[in-house]
Amino acid sequence: MATNENLPPNVIKQLAKELKSLDESPPEGIKVGVNDDDFSIIYADIEGPAGTPYENGVFRMKLLLSHDFPQSPPKGYFLTKIFHPNIATNGEICVNTLKKDWNPSLGLRHVLIVVRCLLIEPFPESALNEQAGKMLLENYDEYARHARLYTGIHAKPKPKFKSGAICESTTALNVDQSNTSVLNVDKKATVNGAALPLPSPLAIPTTATKGGNNQEQQSIVPIIETGVSGTALVGIPGTGVKKEGSTKILADKKKMDPRKKSLKRL
Fold first, then answer.
1. Would the pLDDT of 10 be above 60?
2. Structural domains of the chain, ranges and CATH numbers in brackets
3. Would you say residue 86 has pLDDT above 70?
4. What 3-state class would DSSP assign to 20?
5. What contacts 215, CB < 8 A, 6 or more positions away?
6. Does the keyword section mention Nucleotide-binding (predicted)?
7. Which of 63, 71, 66 is nearest to 102 (CA)?
8. What pTM was estimated for this model as a whole?
9. Are 164 and 36 in contact (CB under 8 A)?
10. Which residue, among 112, 137, 111, 109, has the nearest Cα to 122 in the 3D structure?
């Protein structure tokens, strides 16, 4: 997600529009990518123009935008090694558009097109790479051979920028705040609509007495007991009801009493 702390909000807004335009309708031979963390660093892959020593090569470059952009021009650097009079060995680009001819009304599209045109028509008179500039003026064939050699070694096709990445990044600038609001609403809805805890199926119900001040707990779970004769006795507390097993025990006890009396007489 883009933070863009290095640029003022009005510049970020303008850049977002231009980057989206470059992504949807890129200039010929140029593909733009964006740094997700900072829009002040713009990447571009430039295809070597046909009929030049840079043909079939793909050169990656970057533009660095200062805090006072567009009042001051961006700085351009080639990240891919290239043998060219106007590109220094450290990758710095020397072109008038990025120096004395800069105008705040010029956009990124114009800058990138000028850089690609520099591969078609170098300016050896203002060379940063003196060896390349001198060779171009004195022996073009030797210059072209060196340039093709660099192109074949270093300017191999690069991994393509993710499709739609610029649109996603520019959109993120506008939706971050709304996403935060939506998350807050969801949290409130979750709290207000939280499900109440369901009663446990093992809970014991309570019934109020006539006075209403005291409550008497009654278990509806039947209690199982075992009688002397092995007969199961089933009862429900508070009802005083038991099955026939209890009656049988009392009858057996009455039969035993006369026998004990007879034994005492003997």
1. yes
2. 13-155 (3.10.110.10)
3. yes
4. helix
5. 206, 207, 208, 209
6. yes
7. 71
8. 0.61
9. no
10. 137
